[in-house]
Every structure is written in C-alpha cells, then in structure tokens.
Amino acid sequence: MKQRFSALDVRATVTALQQRIVGLRLQGLYDVNAKTFLFKFTKPEHKELVLVESGIRLHTTDYTRDKSITPSNFCMKLRKHLKARRLTAVRQIGMDRAVDFEFAVAAGPHAEGTYHIICEFYASGNIILTDHQYTTLALLRVVHVDADTTFAVGRKYSLAESRGVEMVERSALVEFLGRAGPKDNLKRTLASFGVFGPALSEHVIMRAGLSPSLRVATGLDLHPNSPQISALVEAYGEAFEIVARLGREVAPGYITYVEGDGGSESVYDEFNPWLFEQHKDKPHTSYASFADAADVFFSNIEAQRLKVKAHQQELAAEKKLGAIKSEHEGRVAALELAHRKTEEQARRIEINLEFVDQAIMIIRQAVAAGMDWKELEELVRDQQEQGNPVAERILRLNLAANQITLELDNPDDSDSDSDGDGDGDGDGDGDGDGDDDDEGGFDGPLAVDVDIFESAFANAQRYYNSRRQAGVKHAKTLAISTQALQSAEQKIKTDLKATKVTVTVSQLRKPFWFEKFSWFVSSDGYLVLAGRDMQQNELLVKRHLRSGDAYVHADMHGAASVIVKNRPAAESAEIPPSTLFQAGVMSVCQSRAWDAKIVTSAWWVEASQVSKTAPTGEYLSTGSFMIRGKKNFLPPTQLVYGFGFLFKLADDESIARHVRARQQRQAIMEENMKAATGSRLAPAGESLSSEDKGDNMDFGAARIKYNLDEIEVAAVDEFAEEPKAPVSRSEGKRQISAKERRDMRKQRDDAAPPAGKIDKKEQRRLEEEAKYEKSQQKQQKQKQQQQQQQQQQQQQKRGQKGKLRKMKEKYSEQDDEDRELRMALLGASGKKSISAILNTTRDAAEEAEAVVVPEQIPPSIVDQLKALDVESPDAVPDTTAAPADDEDDDDAPDLTVEQLSVLDTLTAAPLPGDNLAFALPVCAPYSTLSQYRYRVKLLPGAMKKGKSCKMALTVTLAAADANKPRSTFSHDPAEADRLEMAAILASREKELMKSVPEPELIMQMLGKAKVVAPNIESVRQNMKTKAKTMAKAKANIEE
C-alpha cells in the first residue's frame, strides 16, 4: 500500500493548489497532531482547507477533523507571522518533494515582510518558516545532516541543491543500467533513475514492452542501439511529457483498490495523478482532481485506523470487565465452598463423636497435668509410631489457641464401597452422603480443628453456627452481585468514554444557500430569512425579495430585515398570518427589545412596497429601504425564542414517509386560510374596497383587543374622499351594549343606514380630534416661523461658519424631523416635545416613508395604532418600482423550485427507519418549534452564546438518551422490531447532534439568553458529576 507522496504527486498537487488557493488569505492555522497541520484559506463566500502532514502528504480536504484544543508553540509562531496574509504563490522546488508557499507583500516577494513556508515530504519531513531572504525563523524539527549542514533557526535555507526534470539521454540510460548488480531487476534499478519515481518508471518499462522483473545483467541487451534500449528511451520521452503536463494542467486522480473477499470492504492500494499502464487492468476509481483522490484515500485510511484503535480500546475494556466478573465469581464460589466445608466438618464431628471426645480428654488431661507442650508433641509422635488409633488421627497440636487438628473419616464412604462390591443393597442415606461428598470434593479424611476445652458436641455446634454466618454472607454476596457488576461495568464505560478515540474523520457538508442568514422554517412550512447585519439586510432584500414574498420589520433599533419566501408554485397565494407573526417575533427578538425586555410589535408589507429609491434630495444608507403605502401591524410579540435541531433526510424513501404528514398539514392550513378569507368577505352583491382587498391577512383576537377595526373605520371616514362601507368582520366585531341592542330592535323596520355611516358619539369624537390636530398644526407652524425669524436675526460669530459646515457634513443623513426628534429625546432645552414632533410628522406624512434600520425609535402600541390614522385608504402601493432596485444587480439569482424544495428534505421529528444525513441547528420563535423533538426555550438573560450552546446541546443529548428504549426485548416480534428501530434512531440522532461543529451552533444561537428546559437543574448536576468522574478517570489513568 502506498503511504506517502512521490515527486510526481507533489507536482500534480502544486498545480491544483495554484488554481485553488493562490490569492486567498490564510484565515486560520490549526494543528491536528504533532506532525499534521490544517491551513484555512478564505475569501468572501469561499474557503479552502489544506492539510499538510510533514513527510507524508499535502492536499486540500473536504473532511473535518478534531483539532488540538491548545495549539503548539510552532503553530502559534506560524499564526503570529502568517495569519490574515494573502498567499501569492505556490511552487515546487525543482522536482524535489518540497513545496514553497509564498506570502509576499505589495512591494514584491524580495521585500521585507514576505514570508515562506517550506514543506518537505522526504525522509521524516519538515515544515520551515523563513523570511524574504529564506532565513529560518521557525521549524518543526531541527535536522543535523552533517557537520556543515544543519537545519535550525537562524540558518539560511538553500535552494541551490534542488533537482530539475530533463529529457533522458540514451548514453546516460545505458551507463546507469550498466552499473546494476547481477541480481537487480529492471523495476528496482530504474526506480532510482532520474526524478520519475517508482510508479512512472514501471509505467515506462511496461510501455517499452518489457517485464519489470527482468534481470538487467542477463536479460537486457545494453547495446546503445538495441531495440530494448530504444523502446525505453521512447517510453521515457512519453514520461517526460506526462511530467510536463502535470505541471501545466490540473490532473484527475485515480485510486486503485483490492476487492474484498466474501462481501468484505475493499481495501485501497494506491493513489496516482495518472492512470499508469500497470494499473489499467486493476479495479480503480477516478476523481475530478488528484487532490480529491488523495483526500479520499488518506481520510479513508485515517478512519480505518481510528476504528481499529477504538475497537482495541473496547476489547481492552471488555477484557477488564471479564476479569472483574471472573474475580467476583471466584469470590462467590469460595464463600459457597467455605459454607459447605463448615457443614461437612460439623457432620464429621457428629459421626466420630466418641473418638473426638477421647482425643480431647487425653490432650486436656496432659495439659492439666502440667506437661510441657514439646514433651506432649513427642508423646503423640511416639504413640503414632506404636499404632495408637487415637494418636494416629491427631495431625498437629495448636495449644496456644487451645486447639488440636484431627483427621476424621466418613464411615459411610467405606460402607457404600463395600455395598457396591456386594449385592448392591445398602443404606440409602449412605449413598446420598457419598454423592454429596463427591459433589463437594470432601471424599476421604477431612482435617477438623476442635477446641480441647469443649466437648465434641459443643465443637460440632460451633461449626454449625459458623455455617450459618457463612450462609448469610454468601446470600448477601449473591444479592449484591448484580449491583456490583453493574457498578463495575459503568465505571469501566466511564473510563472508556474519557479516553476513547472517536472516529472524527467525516466529510464536510456543503452549506445550504440560506444558512449565511438567520433563518428558520415556519410552522406552515415557509422559509423565513433575516439579515445578521446591515450588509446582509441589503443583500437579502436586493437579491432574494421577489414578488409574492413579504417583508417584515419592527420600528426598533437593531431590528432585522426579515423576508418570508412564498412558494414558487403559488406566488399569488397569501402567506398565513401565523408565519407573518413568527417572522415578526424574529425581527423583534433580534433588536434591542431583547436586551431591554421591551414588548413591542412588528409590521409587514408586500414585496412591491419595498424599494431602494430615495425621494429627491434624500439618501438611503446601507440596510435602509423605502416603504411605500400602508404598513400592516402585527400583534405585540412575546420575547420567547427557541433553539432546536432539524435533520436532513438522505434518501427518497425516507422523504416519502413524511409526505403524508406534510400534505395533511398543508390541507389544514389551506382550509383555515379559506375560512379566514371567507369570514372577511362582504355580503352578496357588494364589492370589496381597494383597502380590504389588500388587507386579507388579519389577526382577529388582536383586532378585538386593540380595537383596530374602529381605528380603520375612523381613518376611512376622516380621510377618504368618498364614504365607503366598512367590511364586516366575523372575528373583529365591535362589542354592542344592551342599550344599543334595544335601539336596534326599535329601528328594525326602518331603512338601513347608508354605507359608511357611524353613530353620533363617534362622529363627535372624530370632529374633536380633527379640531385638536388643526390647532396643534397651527401652533407648530407659528413656532417654526418664530424660530426662523430668530435664526435670521442672529449674526454668525467668527469661526462659526466652518463649524456649521462640519456639522452639516456630519449629520447630512438626518432630515429635520429626525434631528428634532433626537434633540427632544436628549432633553435639549428650547426644543419641541416628542408629541409635538410626532404631530408635525403626521401632518407632513406622505405615501413614502424611509425605514432606517439602525436609527429607528421604538414606538409604543398607541403610536402604532395612531399611525394607522395617517395612512390613506386610497393609497395604492407603487407597483412600478421593483423591490430593492433589482436592475442594479444583474447577478441576482432567481430561486427555483429546487432551491426551496430542499425544505421538504428537512424534518424535526424523524421516523424509525429514516436515513439521516446530518443535523441542522435552528434558532426560531418558540411557537415554531412546537413539533420539534429536540428543543429548548430561550428567554432574555445574560448567558453568552458559547455557554448557551453547550447547555442546549447537553439538554438535547439527554433528551436523546431518554428517547432511547431501556430494553429492546419483547415477546412480540413486531414490538421488538419497533423498539430496536427506535433505539437505532435515537442513537443516530444523538450522534448527528453531537457532531455539529461548535461554530455552527454559535452562529445560530441568540445572544444574551437564558436556556429553559424541563429538568434543567438535574442536567446541570449531571454535567458536574460527569466532569468530576472523567477528571478522576483521567487522573487514575495517568497514575
């Protein structure tokens, strides 16, 4: 198996890197291990990852790998000099296995400030950082070649010894082959000839029609004009063309592999930038570029190595657990044996009761007579030699403990043996005892310790008491054996988790086009997008706001510009109110209202009402737009957000399982929309007004609570040129008192009032309001005239003209109304009040209104409702103006059905049997996450994004563990299959959520939040306990 890059591989890789990363900036540099480094090159909306393993490989990668938490000193040195610098050149040093990355300054590559990274891929390899004069600043390892050549800091890196590629001459080839040994074959000899390498040399041999195993000394004609030499020279000419082509063009990649036997996986063998002659008959896979082939090859090998290492750790853990089980079983067996032995000793004493009493009496009398212990032992030995039956059964004396050891037989053994030799008749009890002895291993004589100051019966009773204690101990041990084994197993698993090597080589997924924005999918299945800053607000409206979409915003500083994408197949269909409300929640929660905990409301308009064209003499800054026509205000929003996970379905079969649920949801939504639209229709024979046609989306409960219908009717009667009949609303009817109901009964037979007529109280209220407004306008005009006169009378002092010019340039983006409103908010003396300014604004309001996102003043609910009075019902949106001036952006892409149909492949609640590809973090209004399986609630708080993400991920992982069945056993096969599928699904969901990169979680998380979830305190305690356990396990392993 090929293990490292050759010179030809380096050449092909450098050619590909010259087209992919030259001109990009080095955004990040990470160390995967002591010899492997990951370079991240980026430009706007594009990034490339380059993996460098010293002495082994160099290629771009599409796979993600775990990086070291703490960077090494060498990595920190590289970051210090190279981070955020632009890569200007990549070149191979001659034809050697060395690559030079050049980070030059604008003055040129030879100017001070230019740096080089030289990566060597021969021997043990090296990575060297040099300045513009190739003086070494830092290097991965110090190398002493000889007394005069050393690679170290401060030494100059020499480029003079590099080799180049040249055409092979016939005389040089013959001379080289003539130096071959008698046993050298052609393949081994030509592998070191020139700079072509072993693979290309073998290709040359086969193209020449020769065998690689041909002996050079005996099987090759070395005459310069021989056919064999001529064929080799011609083949080397082709090889030279291959090398030159690899230096000019991006070459495809090829991986040859060995097919597995018996259905086993195939094993990769080699990777090359050219399909050589020796590989054409082997199974191989081709790739678009050699870098892709090398990436797949080495990533597969890494994954296999990690799997083997993880498997070895699991085997070691199983072996350790098996040893604990064996030890525990041995302890239990020893207790059981002691219990049976004690019982057998007591039984032997009972069987030999008279003999035991005699032995005890003899020894007791000798001790009572004052005989010396040694003399007593000699006496016992003398009696044993004389054949005394009592002395023969005394094994030893332990007079210090007042005990003697007797060897007691079981008479039943001899009886059973004699009965077996005879006619077979015998005592059944004797047979049973013999069987017990055989099972317990107590055949023959048994040593029994007896107390000389107790009788034989008392000694037997003492053994029976010991048997009871051993039995109790044995029972307790058996009772806690299961618990002890589970505890040991849990401890081993915890230690394994603390040190387990996980398979971390996984392919990077391609982000969706909408992930650059803040996004979520509404409960009705609509895509909602919001900009993260002013530039993204501009891009979002300019490129992605189309006819049929809705634009949502809030009059609050920092509120995001939100658009709701309508379905391409139904652009004329109305967007549901629930989706608009959720988009409004998104806009408000991303504004200053979240930090200040202010409850306010958002508004929405159609796409045709949004334009980037400013009125004459005005200027719109980045992220600001003109809103023409009426704003549709949404109900006040609660500051409740959520964080959850969506899962990407990987195949059509899994997507088909969710089609029925989506169709049912779509049918219910359409039915609700029809019912809501039908309730707002006018009676038969009456046509809807232009205002009612454009206001089909309303919120019934909010209209009743905030009396929006009365305000709209009043606005119609006050500002309309002709009276129009108000549209009846089943959801928003004004409450009728009992007196009014009686008056209606009395006037039942009278003619119906003309359309648009209102009662006297309402008319008097409107007249009073009109008079009040006219008086306020008159006062404002008088004040303005007085101020203008005062300004004309005042003479400009010396130097004041320049100051006024600077102020005019600084506040050129503000109009008079904005300036007066800001001064009033600051409490400046002599300025108008806020109410007076708002009244003046009401009088001067036109159809067009500028929406400046970063400089809006948050209005109250009353101000929003008053704003409805200003807007004329006859105002027709300017449909001629394209949204956000699309003519200025020729490259703005049109979103096709395929781009939005990707939402159908995302699900919040996977079903058993689904094939899941990856998990997507989503931050959205909490009402949107009602169907999500894994979600947490976010409230305004002080927690940073990183900590919030960690807490939310811990909660969701705990929920995945809770969803996993405790056992998959069931007597019902169908239920057992269901439990097994549920366990597999929960494990897969947990794995995918755990594999989401932390930057991706942080990018979606809402800042300054408080995570709320069921049993979150227990989750925190479990986190602390697990951290302590892992710390102890690591400490034990280090010890």
In short:
The chain has 1039 residues and is α+β, with helices and mostly antiparallel strands.
Describe this structure in words.
It is a single chain. By secondary structure, the chain is of the alpha+beta class. 46% of the residues lie in helices and 15% in strands. A 6-stranded antiparallel beta sheet has the order 20-21-23-22-24-27, with helices on both faces. A 5-stranded antiparallel beta sheet has the order 6-7-8-9-10, with helices on one face. A hairpin with an 8-residue loop joins strand 22 and strand 23. Helix 24 packs across helix 27 and helix 30 packs antiparallel against helix 31. It is flat, with a radius of gyration of 45 Å.
